[in-house]
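Example A, followed by Example B.
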Amino acid sequence: MTSSPESSPSFSYLMLSNKLKAILGQIVFAVNVFVLFLVLAENRVLIPDWLHVFGRMHPLLLHFPIVLLLMALLLIGIPDLLKNQEDSRMYGRDLLLLGTLTAGFTVIAGLLLSHESGYEQDALSWHKWTGLLVFWTSSLLYNFLQYPNRLLIKSSTAFLALVVVLSGHLGASITHGEDFITGPLKSDEQLTVSLEEAEVFAHVVYPIIENKCVSCHKASKQKGELRMDQVERLLKGGESGPAIVPHDLENSLMVQRINLPQEDEEHMPPEGKPQLTAEEKSILEAWIQSGAPVEGRVQELSDSSSIYSLAVNKFSAQPASYGFDEVSSATLEELTNFYRKVQPLGLESPAVSVSYFGRASFDPRSLEELAPIHVQTVSINLNNMPLEDSDLQSLAGFVNLEKLYLNFASIQGEGLQYLKGLEKLQLLSLAGNPLQEAALAQLAELKSLKKLYLWNTGLSESSLEELRAALPGTRIESGTSVSETILRLNPPVITFDRAFFRDKLNVQLSHPIGTTTIGYTLDGTEPDSSNHLVYTGPLEIDADKTLKARAFADGWIGSKTAEAEFIQSTIVPDSFQMNYLPEDRHKGDGQESLFDRKKAIPDGWNLNWLGFLNNPLEVEMDFDTPTTINSMALSIWQNGGARFFPPSQVQLWTRDSPDQNWKLAKTYQPSPLAKDDPSLLRQFEIPFSAKDVRHLKLLAKPVERMPAWHGAAGSKAWLMVDEIVIN
């Protein structure tokens, strides 16, 4: 007599008991109800912080249902896998129950995790709905198994297997990138690009960003609202501000984050991700220091730019193409001094580049000292040197010269005749020189030129057209746009104590180059050649002002604008208390941040920000003596994309003594934030004035439901505050 499957010891040991299956079935039903509630009330329910902890377990949980469901579908769809088909079906049904249950908890965690920012909504939506389809289909299939319709069961198992694989693939794409699986099969484009073809951003900078940054900052996963997979979005920045500020390492958040200690939670790339090498950090920093150019080739860079030598070393300089020997390192060291730098073009190249520095120290006869490297020199940078036409005769001996930079010298044109014998000269930059019409005839003889820069030379448009006709194979740049070959000053440095001040504030402007002129404005307008005051000494600020400053110098392009806002706040309460704590993510220095006179910067990690989301900003202020208040304002951060909105309503309450009830003195309902309103730090004015104030309560409510135009319409908005201003 053969035993039934139910009486087999091994089968009974492995199979779930009927009582346990009934309990698990009820739990699956309850999970279905809860999931349905989360889906229907997704934008109308507030998720407590402790549940977000469970949500972040989604990546851990998801592996269980994938394995359990695929094993179950294999046993159910192919019952002949086991000797006893009934065993195969029973094992498969039990595994399907466990897989459905774990899928339910995984879906709940995923729905909770989706409330956090950082993921692109389209990609997230596809993953969410395929995940829900897995859970709901497995729940239905578990109940269908009691019916003998094999066609229905087989088609359902095939469909469910397909959806499991699809949902898993979409989840991996969000986390690791669309090409995570096929990425190793792609060829390295850089290996097929020569130095002559290499572009600064596409072939030197972006491969680093793509390999170390894009996995967390792309269309499907935008941590910190920052995308780095497209250059225009990279330059735009994220919720914390600009990732890259050209020519400014100190204020570029990318540089700040990559240089933090690796154990710091703000360090980028985060722990567990591939880290930047020292060379990669140097390239990113040098690229930003050089102005973060996104167009142009490596060989178009000025040899004196900080990115040039790092970039050129990443590519083969093709030493076999040069028919001359390498210069000894001793000779290069001997020719290098405090006003001149001589260096190899690349690590394995015999070619040499020469750059001069220090206009006051330059002697044209020093070019004759380069006779030992006449043959090997392929690039000379003489920008801002006091060269005249006669001095160009010293350049005639550099027979292999390919690039020559003569920006902002005193060349009129006759001396260009000495360049006619330089048959390999491909790039000539004469920006900022007072060229005469006679220069055209000399330039027209330079048939080997591929690029000619004549920015700000005074040549007429008709003369330039004539020159273009004479040099049809030469790209001639003559517009007012700033070329990479022209040097720009760094912005001036603004030094002050604190941006919020009571009576007066002293502000100093400085620049590392002492011969610069610093022009500034105090009305928020841009300083230029016709609109600026010349800085001669410390500025005394005694009212709200927006300071903008630029540096100017002969032979240089004016710097970008440095900016600072100063806000007068004459009244500080003698004591105050904040009734609701800010969210942990933006808790600053607690209530002390409200009157510490420290100006926050547009960086979500800045410790001066107090962020309110679930509770209002409610502050009770006490004044020892009766105080007259003429104006009030909140210093806030407004950024619609980052969900930082002004308050939806402000209330002011007063009372004469602590034992009295508060009386509503003012309710202010501001206009809602519009879609096109700019992102900025602003003073949110509160129209309130009163005399003899002893006790004052301010209540500012965050926006409960963001408007229909917002991508997260219906969700709550942050109220970001760094100071209360009272005058």
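Example B, a separate protein, is given below in the same form.
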Amino acid sequence: MTTGRGGAAGLPPPDGAGQPRGARPLLTVASLAVALAAADTYVVVLALTDMMAGAGLGIESLQKGTPIISGFLLGYIAVLPLIGRLADLVSRRKILLACLMVFVVGSLITGVAVELPVMIGGRFLQGLGGGGLVPATLAIVADLWPPGRRGMPLGVVGAVQELGSVLGPLLGAGILLVSDWRGIFWVNAILGLVFALGVWVIRPDAPAGAGDVGVRPVTPARSQVVTALAWLAALVAAVAGSLALIAPESLTSSVAYGEPFVPFGESSSRVWTPVGLVAIVALVLLVALTVRRWLPTLLLADVLGAIFVAIMLGSLVLTFSSADPAKEVLGPWGLWLLPLGALALIAFLIRQRTAANPLIQRGVVHGKVVPALVVSLLVGAAIVAIVVDVPLLARLTEGTSETAAAIVLVQFLVAVPVGAVLGGLLLKRLGPGVVAAPGLAVTAAALWGMSGWTRGALDEPGLSSVLLVLAGFGIGLAIAPVNDAALADSTHSTHGTVSSLVVVARMVGMVVGLALLTAVGLRRFQEEVAKLADPTDSEAMLDAAVVQVQTVFAGAALAALAAAVIAIWLGWHRVRHTSLS
């Protein structure tokens, strides 16, 4: 049904490109925010030792510093299903704003931290906010672009996400040239606030029903007194928390004003001080005063099921991200984290069957959503094999530095966003399966060629560069089709959930794929070592390590080939264009 010059009922006239006015500016801001969050995964790589020194740790305690990276990854992945579900219950813009503010708070906390637990907590909040941006942005694309015209915007989102990962270390290096490591997080906070302002100002003409669809609080509106108290509690928590973490020398060294900054007992923590305790009490009071505003929606989103999923995904992330992929499959915590994750999975499955409103609504995972999730899982395994083992192979050549190894990998990483944009463009004329399947087949062929690499293969930029570019380009081609097919087989009320599941599947594929491929590769390595006549022969040991890398590439090639076959089920016909409704 149409009315006047407009499109679907309840909609203003589109801007001529099939989406409401303001859609492109909002996508631009949201995509830049996604790129910033993606960059933050690796932005601290070059600054890690300086950050550890800022927390009072020496280079000999490098292992203790790994949670600075894994903490971000944990926050990024563990709550994705909950944020995806919340994006189906409230305005997607509100989710974007909330995630950006969490990201900003996490950046500020990390930037002033002088203790490792506080630093890790700040990074976790950064990951929490950054991860939530992805499903919310993909859901906005589904809201503001009709089926059949989502290819390009989905390709853009996928491209900037990959480009952010590429630029992360470069961004960190650039900031370190003019500032210390804390400058990285000041820049994050400033950019996060700028993007939040952009999301706040840009209000596209939304489709009918694209606003809040979740429950409203069942209680009457909060009184002005309670609202004022909540704002006061927030202000006190922010000011006291900032003072506790920054601990200005002019106050801490003052006889008159220094006592609130003296730690309790024998603690040396800036948080466990009188001023820190004030911040904690104010934060608890803020939660108590506002609980009726957000608790009903959280309960409708099935927060209990989300907790089970967070424990399950968190166990996977911490088990495998804490392992050295060149030496071990499981990290030091794996023996008790994996059983915990298994129990959480069982509890989640029971919850899915018994809850009136489960986290993943019944009937959401159906049709093309299923092959999209499987393809995303397998693509994650292929990506991580290249990201981890290409630099490893480069380092097996004597004299190759970490920087040189990273430069080799950039050839792959740059090709991914290029392929993602082209894949989005091709969806205007071709079906998702027609774009994704050949692209992944190219990746599989490139990985199979890489499985024949020997030491020194990366020193010659000819064939090795071609294979790396083809592998990245093929993966990029599949990004938009996977998202497009999944969103096409979901409704407006489930776009957030489906988008989060696609991202989670890819992240799980990366974590678990690395573990499985490394396990097989280590076994081959041990077999080669057992054959050596002289185990002390360093050259022979390096050749055995190359066999491990070759095995990982071969396994990744099989994963990419399987993804190519399954991608056929994404559909051979172009997604039909329909008006927004």
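On Example B: The chain has 20 helices and no strands.
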